[in-house]
Write the C-alpha cells for this entry.
Amino acid sequence: MKRIGITTTIPVEIVYAAECTPVDLNNVFITSPDPASLVARAELDGYPRTACGWIKGIYATVIQGGYDAIVAVVEGDCSQTQAMVETLASAGVEIIPFAYPYSRDADLLRAQMEKLIDRLGTTWEAALEWKEKLDRVRREVWLLDELTWTRGTVTSYENHYYQVCCSDFNGNPEAFLEEVRAVNQRAMEAEPISHSGRQPLRLGYIGVPPIFTDFYEWTESLGVRIVFNEVQRQFSMPFETDDLVEQYLKYTYPYDIFGRIEDINREVRRRGIVGLIHYTQSFCFRQIQDLIIRRHVDVPILTIEGDAPCPLDARTKVRIESFVEMLSSAHYPTGLGTA
C-alpha cells in the first residue's frame, strides 16, 4: 500500500478508500528517537531559526524518505506550510494540496474533497464506507474522553495520545480500535484517582498539541488532571453525522477562532474545568488569537510557549506550578498538597 504523509488532519476516509496508508507526519516527528535532530536537519538545509519547529520537523521527516506523496493542508492550518511544501517539491516530493475554506463553505469543501478523491483514484461511495468504519473507532475514543472527566481513570497523556492519533489511526484502524478498547476496559474497572485524598484539580488544555516531550506527565505530578484537550479532541470528530462534508465543517480547528471558543466554553462548563493552559507555538500566527480567547473565555488562562522538542524548561515549570497553586488556593483553601 502507498504511504501518504499528511501535514495535519484531513478527510482521512479518502486516503483509506484509495487503499493507501495515511501517516500523520507530526506524530512521526515528535515520537522519533531524536526529534531535535530533525529540527537541526531542517536548519542545516537552510530553514531559518524563526520558522515553526513543527514545520521544520515535518520537512526533515519527509526528506528522510518512505512516503509516496504528501497531502499538505495549505489553507486552514499553518501559514508556513505552503513554503515548506515548495521546498519539498523542489526536492522531488509529490505534493497533493488540500484546503479548508476559511468561509466554511460546504460547496468549496466538497470540491476540495472531490479533487482529493480524483487525485488518489477512489470514489465518494468508497470514502463514505470508510467513514462508517472509522466512526466505530471514533466512538470508542469518545468513550475514552468521557471516562477522563467523568471517572478520572484515564490519564492526561492517554487522553491526549488516543485523540491525537485519530488523525491517521496509526495507519491501522482495527488494531487501534482494539488498543483503545483495552484502555477503556481498564478505565471502567479502575477506582477513580485522587491526589492527597482529594480529587485532582480539573484543568483544560487548548491550542495545538505541545512540542514539549514531558508536558502531561510533569503537569499531572502537581496533583491536577487535564480533562479536556481541545484540538486533539477535534481530531476524533466528536459529533455524530452521516455526511462527510458536514463532519469536516463541524471540525473546528481549520476555521475561525470563534467556533473554537464556542467549543471551549461549552466543554469548560460541562467538565467543571477551573482553568486552562493555552499552548502557543513560537513564531505561529495562532499566538495572536490568544488575546481573543482571553476576551471570550471566563476561566483563568495560563499561556505557555514552546519552540523546539524538549522537556519543559525551568521557567515554564515555575509558571505552571504557580498557576496550579493559585487555582488550588481558590478551590482548596487548605492547600492542594502538590508534589
